[in-house]
Amino acid sequence: MKTKLLYSCLLFAGMTGSAFAQESVDPAMVQKIRDEGLNHSKVMETAFYLTDVSGPRLSGSPSLKYSQEWAVTQLKSWGMVNAKREPWGKFGKGWQVEKNYAAITVPYYHAIVAIPKAWTPGTNGAIKGDVVLVKADTVTDLDKYKGTLHGKIVIFDTKAGVERTFKADAARYTDEELDAMAKATNQPATQRRAFDRNSPQFAAMAKARAMRTAINTFLMSENVGLVLSQARGSDGTVFTTNGASYADTAKAVAPELETGSEDYQRILRLVKAGIKVTMEADIKTRFFTDDLQGYDVVAEIPGTDKRLKDQVVMIGGHLDSWHGATGATDNAAGSAVMMETMRILKAVNFKPRRTIRIALWSSEEQGLFGSRGYVLNHFGDPKTMELKPEQGKLSAYYNLDNGTGKIRGIYLQGDSAAAPIFKAWLAPFKDLGANTITIRNTGSTDHVSFDAVGIPGFQFIQDALDYGSRTHHSNQDTYDKLSEDDLKQAATIVASFVYNTSQRDEMIPRKELPKAQPAIARN
Ligand SMILES: [Zn+2]
After folding, report:
1. Which domains does the chain have, with CATH numbers?
2. Above 90 in pLDDT, residue 202?
3. Which of 79, 250, 318, 494 could form a Cys-Cys staple with 361, CB 3.0–4.6 A?
4. Distance 331 CA to ligand 1 centre (A)
5. Which of 173-182, 190-199, 298-307, 437-446 is predicted least confidently?
């Protein structure tokens, strides 16, 4: 047994080693790409226009449309062709905040940190009202408030306090952590337990959702002035979400503010102590229903090789963001890096063998809709695995959507045959800290849409910095949180990967075609 194992390890190492040895990398072109990406970068300029100039790029919002049109114009100005906003399908209503003011006036004045939940209405002008604590674990608990909440500002009791931690916000991967990732074995894709109807999680989710719906209906019937809910986060950081559906058929809900935990807890303590709290607020939001379609930005550098030019290499990341700030690390960072990648390749006068295509997705935050719609329109349907001819011509899709941190390596998404190839392609960037290849999957972003129809789709391993702890979906996600050196490094490495993928004689090796994934019924 032992000798056999030793023999197969030697064989695999030999194979990897030999496959690695066979994978050619053009050092002159790598050097040109490094020089352009590290010394002549425009990535921060691009990020500035996608963040400070465009604003919060919520799906369907004017700010997202502005950023998309700007990106199309910029890509054209760099020499890309077929640059456009491409519809992927029906999304729903657009929405944006146009006024957001709320403050305690009794027992003293204090303006609170709070953000309207996405797709909720405004207060219809300035309001003033007393804060009322609503305690309801069951629907019947609501009865005792009947007829008492008109124009009031409603707060709920919550066990969540204010998080205090001694842990630093930002962190980079340690060598030990990267080593453990490199040694990891492939984990089969986990069954989406949340939607397994028999699972306790599903039952709990369904119960919570039913209670939330009942509370919304009750508050609407009471015509409350405003609802306060405690946001995740501390130190003035508010992590934002949506308070209603974006569907054009969505039910109306009451105006609701995601409130900073410190302010929320102060109001709650006062009310619970029987001290009267009065607040004033003026929230104005706008819904957009003139165009319910969702759009992705696409553009190309056409291939030049007679045999390979109809084959494609794709890169991308989502451009939409939440509305608390300007979605800098999520995901102007990835979008700017991918645009910069295209600029670098043009600047070094690269004439690719295969066509290179960039896509900046929309509605990723609502469920990868932009990339799933694009894949459905171009490559195939994961529900039936009926594939389109283009599916066979896309060598690989590379994604960036894990914040502003630099690239430390790549997730193979189970595609072990790609390991020696990527090892060779990362080797020239060991000095920049990118050296790790893990067989693991990573999820919850747009490469998954490609993987679902059997196209090699990859997300790079990135340092987290303060993505999870501070910026991801929060009111702190501003241009200031971007790390210029990290973004330059990322664009340089992505440009090199795209170069190699385009020039390679063979396409990137593929895993076995996935089985059809019939839609799991949602109710
Ligand atoms: Zn994201």
Report:
1. 2-91+292-503 (3.40.630.10), 94-167+175-184+195-288 (3.50.30.30)
2. no
3. 318
4. 5
5. 190-199
